[in-house]
Each structure stands twice: as structure tokens, then as C-alpha cells.
């Protein structure tokens, strides 16, 4: 190539990059990398991310030099605008990543949470077992009232029984469940 790249215009360098002339990209890097690295560093406050932005901007220019229009401004201004845009994108991505990590950390179960979940699971199993041991008419009333969330009136309607009868069955069932669960807890404490 006969063109002296050190004195070539921005438009000439862009045309040489479009012809895949690596020396032209090297000259662009020599001229403008420090400036766009400084810009990226000021925006990102992170040298590693700033270097990543510069690399992405120059690789993108290597693949799409036609995006630069010398009639609209200098190559320095074009690369600075590209750097600014990419740095802002990276800041947003980093902020989003940090928020996700913070949310994940906050949502991660702690030892106390895991212990609590285990205890609740054991207790739920005991309650299910105790309910299963109730007489069928009491079991049905309790399931409708406590597991399905129906009111006493709705339970009475569902069972086609008087409301007073349903209330009595539920009270008897709850008394049985309390005795059963208390007994199971006392046995566990002795063990």
C-alpha cells in the first residue's frame, strides 16, 4: 500500500479499514485509543470495563467502517460517540447485574430460613396426619373451613347441615387436633 497512514485523513483510514487493511486500524488505534479509553474510564470508573469498551468500539468499527460518515464529523468524534453509547450501555448492564445479584442474595435462604422451612414442613405433615385421623364428618368440615377457606355458613351449605351442627363438629375436631398435636410435641420433647 502506498498511502502513508500516519498522515492519512480519517476518511482515507476508514476506506482502508473497509478494505480490511489492518495497518489502518492500527493507525486509528494509535491516534484515538488513548482518548476514547480516557472517556470510557471517566464514565465507568473501572479500567477493565473501559478497556473492554474500547476494544468493542474498535472491533465494531473494523466490521462496520461504513457507519462512519466523514461529512458528519471527525473520526475522533464518531469514536467518542460510539464509546459514550457503549459505556452507557455497560453502566446499565452492570447496574442491572448488581441489582439481580443483590436480589438473589436477599432471596437466598439463610440457615435460619431453611431450619424454619423444615420445621414448618414437619408441622404441616403432623397436621395432615392428625386431620386424616379425624372422624369423616369432622374431617370434611375442617377441610372445607380451613383448607378451602369457607365460612361456617358456606360449610353448612356445602354439607347440607345446620350451621350449628357444623360449628360443633369443627370445634370438636379442633379440640381433637390440639390434643393430638400437643401429645406429639410432648413425645418429641422427651425424645
Quick take:
With 191 residues, the chain is mainly alpha-helical. It has helices at 10-18, 22-44, 47-63, 75-107, 111-132, 136-147, 152-159, 163-190.
Structure description:
It is a single chain. The chain is an all-alpha fold and 191 residues long. It folds into 2 domains: 10-107, RNA polymerase sigma factor, region 2, helix turn helix motif (Rna Polymerase Sigma Factor, Chain: A), CATH 1.10.1740.10; 111-190, Winged helix-like DNA-binding domain superfamily/Winged helix DNA-binding domain (Arc Repressor Mutant, subunit A, Orthogonal Bundle). The chain has 8 helices and no strands.
Q: How many beta strands in the DSSP annotation? A: 0
Structural Rg: 36 Å
The parts where pLDDT drops under 50 for at least 5 residues are none
The chain-level structural class is: mainly alpha
| Sheet having the most strands | none
Mean pLDDT: 88
Write down the CATH class of the largest domain: Mainly Alpha
The helicity comes to: over 70%
Amino acid at each position: 500500500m502506498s498511502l502513508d497512514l500516519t498522515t492519512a485523513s480519517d476518511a482515507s483510514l476508514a476506506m482502508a479499514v473497509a478494505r480490511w487493511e489492518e495497518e489502518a486500524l492500527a493507525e486509528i488505534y494509535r491516534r484515538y485509543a488513548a482518548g476514547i479509553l480516557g472517556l470510557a474510564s471517566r464514565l465507568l470508573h473501572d479500567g477493565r470495563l473501559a478497556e473492554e469498551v474500547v476494544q468493542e468500539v474498535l472491533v465494531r468499527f473494523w466490521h462496520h467502517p461504513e457507519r462512519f460518515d466523514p461529512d458528519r464529523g471527525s473520526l475522533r468524534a464518531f469514536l467518542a460517540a460510539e464509546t459514550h453509547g457503549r459505556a452507557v450501555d455497560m453502566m446499565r448492564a452492570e447496574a442491572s447485574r448488581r441489582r439481580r445479584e443483590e436480589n438473589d442474595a436477599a432471596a437466598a435462604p439463610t440457615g435460619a430460613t431453611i431450619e424454619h422451612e423444615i420445621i414448618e414442613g414437619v408441622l404441616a405433615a403432623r397436621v395432615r396426619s392428625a386431620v386424616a385421623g379425624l372422624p369423616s364428618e369432622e374431617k370434611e368440615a375442617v377441610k372445607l373451613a380451613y383448607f378451602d377457606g369457607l365460612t361456617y355458613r358456606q360449610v353448612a351449605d356445602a354439607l347440607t347441615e345446620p350451621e350449628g351442627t357444623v360449628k360443633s363438629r369443627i370445634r370438636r375436631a379442633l379440640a381433637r387436633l390440639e390434643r393430638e398435636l400437643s401429645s406429639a410435641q410432648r413425645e418429641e420433647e422427651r425424645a
